[in-house]
Amino acid sequence: MSQRETWATRAGFILAAVGSAVGLGNIWQFPFKTSEYGGATFLVVYLVAALGIGLPAMLAEFVIGRKSNLNAISAFERLGHRNWKWVGVLGVGIGFWILSYYSVVGGWVLRYIGGSLTGAYFADPASYFGSVSAGLDALVLHAVFMLLVVAIVAGGVEDGIERATKLMVPSIVVILGALAVWVFTLSGASPGYVYFLSPDLSQLSLSVSFDPFPSFSGPLTNVIPFAVSQAFFSLSLGMGAMITYASYVGEDQSLFGDSITVVVLNSAVGVLAGLVVIPLLFVQGVEPGSGGAGALFISLATAFAELPAGRLVGAVFFAVVLIAALSSAISLLEVVTSYVVDTYGARRPRVAAVLGGLIFLLGTPSAWDTAWLTWFDTLAYQLLLPLSVLGVLLFAGWVYGRPAVAELLSGSSFGQGVGVTWLWLARTVVILAVLLTLWLGIQTLFVDGAIVPPL
Ligand code: TRP
């Protein structure tokens, strides 16, 4: 087999990982969910989840990836634990699953760049969304988006992914920052900041009943699993993405430092997106509403339709969303591609193309009807991601254990104490939190009947 690829620079890895993390999750979901689940209260719960649970889990994936130097499935074998391969298989499967509908939303974004420039949605944003979000239009753009993703991944790690994300990530931050400043200068924006950031403590209430099994109810049962799963989704965990990206990293690099950078930048972009989106809605007197698939596209499009420079601002905004979505989607495809390339020594461009085609097919129901998209997304959030992260943590913490600490510390200036603290945190608190999330997620899935596909 030919020499395995690596990142050319340390910044290359960090930017690729941030590019994977920053995506539709930050811009499409995060601001709306924050306003819905208690503003500043949710923000705090989310940050605790990202730092307390997401960060240790990301370190677990980094360790598995760098130590094994292999894709997310073979990594477990290389580390001497064949029978934990299922964790990798589950992750790669979830990558397929998520990318299938992620790409559909990516297609909408493409559509909205054009729609902003021509003003196509200006007359009636809601019915425009209805007509382009499902059916043939959506299917075609889903295909176009997938083609773009395939093109970048086909280019390889250094020339494709690293080069693309080095350009994309700084652009996202700069343009979003500029938009946030511009929104700040608009009159009528201030109630938006209040709405986005004021704490709603009632979201933290919880009641427990024992008859005979403990069952939980109250707003917190939504907030906790949502914050934790949002942290997983947003940090690209539970899908082998971080295992795969870390497998191209050298032993002289501090995984600790890198993961903190990723978590901080990712949260910052989420907040920044909120500071653009929510006040912008208030400027035009649009209520943020309850999120959902169309929130960004309908409410925000309404705001752009009313603004003086709406066409330009709209196009720039959706272009940023597109860049963010693309840099995440390439990590999803890379996970699967990396496995096939490593295992069968097949040519990367062909593998990326075939896999891209299969993922396109899996996404057709979501493109045809948004009810399917919601179903795919709900299952990923409530069940698949927490399950897969649980597997990673059980493996890294309890099965692999001590060697993981050594691997974590390699290349960093932190002492043994920090490594051991991570290990015990991962083994106990973090696993318990993920179990709770999983339990609450399953409870929601079955109580709401969300588990039933929309046939
Ligand atoms: N993190 C990306 C976002 O916020 C989505 C994503 C990319 C992802 N890779 C992933 C989610 C792996 C889960 C697993 O939009």
TrEMBL record:
Q: Where in the cell is it found?
A: Membrane
Q: Describe its membrane topology.
A: Multi-pass membrane protein
Q: Name one GO cellular component term.
A: membrane
Where is this chain primarily localised?
membrane
**Which ranges does the record mark as transmembrane?**
12-31, 43-65, 86-108, 128-155, 167-189, 223-248, 260-282, 312-333, 353-376, 383-401, 421-442
- What Pfam families does its record include? SNF (PF00209)
The UniProt entry, under InterPro entries, shows: Na/ntran_symport, SNS_sf, YocR/YhdH-like
Q: Which PROSITE patterns match?
A: NA_NEUROTRAN_SYMP_3
Task: Alphabetically list the UniProt keywords.
Answer: Membrane, Transmembrane, Transmembrane helix, Transport
Protein name in the entry: Neurotransmitter:Na+ symporter, NSS family
